[in-house]
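Q: What residues go here?
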């Protein structure tokens, strides 16, 4: 059968009068179009429900499980981190208390050592002071023993200087005795 339409670039001849509707919209084709529509969509539904949708559901379930697992793991790690932080704070507080106690003990020990050294130095200085005072007293008493002799010599020298004659030792001795009393 020959086609009414040619393959040339010429305008086709006018179509018969009853052939003016678009074939999918032709009411004579509705039944077969609906049948094929049902067959294709039914096949597509079966294909999607048996293959594609279970895969998508498995992927979504796996993602949800992964997310839930990650959230649970993060919650557990956060709890562990909070516990570690609390332990750290407790350890830090204990270390500070220990350091404070050690510092206090060291302060008390050093204060006691310093006090002992101070007392030892004071005792040493007191002993040296007592020795120096004893030496001064001995020197003073030795000097006082010679005061009379020195006074005698000084008086004789003064009398001799003033009078030009040597002084009488008995007169100087009696004058010194009167001055002592």
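A:
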């Amino acid at each position: 059968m020959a086609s009414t339409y040619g393959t040339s670039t010429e305008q086709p001849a006018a179509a018969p009068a009853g052939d003016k509707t678009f074939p999918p919209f032709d009411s004579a084709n509705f039944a077969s179009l609906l049948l094929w529509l049902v067959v294709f969509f039914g096949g597509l539904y079966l294909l999607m429900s048996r293959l594609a949708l279970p895969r998508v559901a498995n992927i979504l379930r796996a993602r949800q499980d992964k997310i839930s697992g990650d959230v649970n793991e993060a919650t557990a790690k956060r709890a562990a981190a909070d516990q570690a932080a609390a332990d750290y704070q407790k350890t830090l507080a204990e270390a500070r208390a220990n350091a404070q106690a050690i510092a206090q003990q060291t302060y008390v020990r050093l204060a006691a050592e310093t006090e002992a050294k101070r007392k030892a130095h004071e005792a040493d200085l007191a002993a040296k002071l007592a020795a120096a005072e004893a030496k001064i007293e001995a020197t003073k008493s030795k000097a006082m023993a010679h005061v009379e002799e020195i006074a005698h010599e000084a008086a004789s020298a003064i009398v001799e200087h003033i009078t030009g004659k040597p002084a009488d030792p008995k007169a100087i001795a009696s004058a010194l005795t009167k001055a002592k009393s």
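A: Context that may help when evaluating the design: The chain has a mean pLDDT of 87. The longest helix spans residues 30-163.
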